[in-house]
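User:
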Amino acid sequence: MTSALPYALIATDLDGTLLRAGDTVSARSCAALATARAAGARHIVVTGRPVPQIRHVLDDLGYTGLAVCGQGAQVYDAARGLLLHSVAMDRGLAEVALGKIEAEIGEVYVAVNQEGVDAEMLIGPGYRMPHPHLPTVRVRRRGELWSAPINKVLLQHPLLDDDELTRVARSVVGDLVNVTMAGEHTVELQPPGVDKASGLERAASVLGLPAASTIAFGDMPNDVPMFAWAAHGVAMANAHRELVAVADEVTLSNEADGIAVVLERLFA
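Assistant: Predicted structure:
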């Protein structure tokens, strides 16, 4: 029975939130999540990473639930290794959006996450991978990025910082695509209407759980929609100021087991 639970659904971002350095989850965080699950709560990972870039994390966690991936574009059943839902980004629209952005601020460096459980991340000239331990394929020309279906585009600029690049991209193409900042050097373009809230709502509906029973943890502006959807949003101490501004509370950092601190209080 979940009616007596403080929250029946726990939604956690990964990078900068649940994960420590090296894509690891602390024993304390694992224990706190296990205690919540034993009480009847469900845990859903909600991450900007596509499925191929989180399966090793899910395996290490022994995770068998649903995961919202690709910034909300994918709902993945970890137990069966299946995509239950996936939204592709129109490649023509992506090229139009890039053209408009570059007309405003000059050349941007581009990467894409391809569609599918075993898809690749393709990196164009100049793009620097924020997570060098994750597998990528470098291409020589931008046109090669569109060789297969994609679910999002990642941008970097040689001079503008992440906040300014996000602001400019939204002002230029925000009516065409969803623009979000997901992490350091990670500004992304997604299909319209796709974000962490839309993906989490879809996954929660599969479990029969409402927003009113959900607590969400995050650290970056891409978590803002998820906080708006959930009943309670918890920002990490290391969170971006844009997320802190809309959070219901702020916990310790990811390195200091901020999620565990909150869950131990709620599910003791």
